Backbone:
């Protein structure tokens, strides 16, 4: 059972907000489990669960990787047949660099790379922002305090977010892995979050 945005825009918006609230509750559970089980507990199953909750009743394909083409503005995500391998590499990169990268480096890479791959039909942004916050908290060793958490703050001011993502995309197109603009943006938002505790 799903609601189509064009048929019932108000209900669709309400469902999105309710789903987001449920996703944040699930995210807190995942972080607490991850803190006990260690860095390798972050896997595709966590992402599938976060995506499923984010798109419940607004997409029939929540919680599984896409098996069709998708287009996102000027970004053309990889072919759907490449998604499983790209996601395996994504997870390997995170696990291999868990203790080498700072919390904001890990989170910025996770956010950018998930959006670049765009592994789901719907809810990629919400899922990537939740994953980013998971990585930030788990790598920091605590569920970080704040009345408004980082994913909510990103939603408030998206232009610097989009600019930082474009910078990482441009670096990747040039053969470099550089999420430094995104890392600086996340660090600023995190500082604001922590200052309001």
Residues:
């Amino acid at each position: 059972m799903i609601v189509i945005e064009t048929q019932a825009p108000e209900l669709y918006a309400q469902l999105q907000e309710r789903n987001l609230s449920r996703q944040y509750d699930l995210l807190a559970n995942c972080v607490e489990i991850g803190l006990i089980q260690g860095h390798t507990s972050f896997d595709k199953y966590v992402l599938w669960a976060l995506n499923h909750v984010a798109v419940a009743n607004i997409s029939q394909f929540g919680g599984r990787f896409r098996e069709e083409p998708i287009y996102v503005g000027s970004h053309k995500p990889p072919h759907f047949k490449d998604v499983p391998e790209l996601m395996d590499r994504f997870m390997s990169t995170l696990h291999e660099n868990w203790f080498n990268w700072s919390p904001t480096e890990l989170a910025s890479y996770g956010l950018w790379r998930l959006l670049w791959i765009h592994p789901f039909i719907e809810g990629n942004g919400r899922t990537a922002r939740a994953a980013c916050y998971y990585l930030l908290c788990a790598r920091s060793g605590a569920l970080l305090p704040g009345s408004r958490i980082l994913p909510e703050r990103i939603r408030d001011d998206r232009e610097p977010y989009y600019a930082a993502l474009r910078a990482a995309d441009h670096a990747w197109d040039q053969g470099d892995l550089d999420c430094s603009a995104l890392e600086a943006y996340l660090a600023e938002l995190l500082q604001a979050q922590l200052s309001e505790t």
Q: What stands out?
A: The first helix runs from residue 9 to 37. The mean pLDDT is 95. The helical segments are 9-37, 44-54, 83-96, 103-117, 124-140, 150-156, 158-173, 180-195. The chain has one domain: 9-195.
